[in-house]
Hints:
alpha/beta, 8-stranded mixed sheet
Amino acid sequence: MKILVINCGSSSLKYQLMDMTDESVLCSGAIERIGLEIKGGENNVIVKKNGEKFMYDKELADHTAAFNEVKYVLSESEYKVIDSFDEIDAIGHRVVQGGDKYKKSVLIDADVEKTVEELSPLAPLHNPANLQGYRACKTVAPELPQVAVFDTAFHSTMPAKAYMFAVPYEYYEKYGIRRYGFHGTSHKFVSNRVADRMGKDIKDLKIITCHLGNGSSIAAVKNGEVVDTSMGFTPLDGFMMGTRSGGVDPSVVTFIEKKLGVTPDEMDAILNKKSGVMAVSGVSSDDRDICAAQDEGNERAILAHEMQAYQIAKFIGSYIAAMNGVDAIVFTGGIGENGVWLRSKVCSYLGYMGVSINEEINAGTQKGAEAELTKETDKVRVFILATNEELSIARDTAEIVKSL
Length: 404
């Protein structure tokens, strides 16, 4: 079975073709600057095959044109990996917001399409783009079954005491204001992977998964189900990220709006795009730049890193309390897999749990590699695991289409 995984943004389309017999990647890549003028040299079409990367320019008017280009790349171009697009069995889509409606991945039909569109106000930057991808695929390959895999689905097991906010209850009933959580496919993948690494049933474990990147979230997974997660109504909540503030006193928001005379949309941009590590450090939102500045003694870069590690450790501590213990802590994502200093600093706060990591292994682990930073005999084990959201989407898609 061959599954094509699609992840659409407003002007981009990422793709990955997988052979599910051995879960190998046949080809992957991206198309960027969709709907924009291509002057030359942008290399907006990217193809990755057999460890090699190829790029070229092509102006593509919309997502339908972009998906046609994906079809051409995979089955007709000099980079082709299949003889015909008919070899593909199904398409799996990342969809960010499934609301209260979808607690697992589903086959997309007219009702699902309508509901995802109705949920767009809860994810205005993502759901419309995800729908564009689905509609483009439907136009080009109408015969292929398509599956929606929701970022929010894995978090749907949270109890009301964790997902409700203490605002007038009618706002929840009328507008769906509650905690949803995001990065669900990543948290699902690594929590299952760490159970495999430990040789235990996930239903017997208490796991804290830390997906750390430019956008970051932490989840408490007890007996295979999420009981709490750091991102909330939107991906802005939680702890500080690359350009996002994380949780702040709500009065700070209204104070700044009044003080600067900014609109709600302008305030939203401040909190999402002009805050976080970038704002505190004054250097960058890229953790590699922060590490370099920290090594040079930049005080604001040091402060940004210290704040970030402290906030992550506080979330981990609160989730240990929520689950009445923890068996494993997992670091994943770009920073989770590369952030030597951050992993070490976060774990230094957890000595009360008996956490003592091997700093030599911590410093020597490369991105994409799996490693355990503790010993098998330790009460709390700490792992670095590479996430694979595309594989998680492909697995869900394959499982659904098998029953058709």
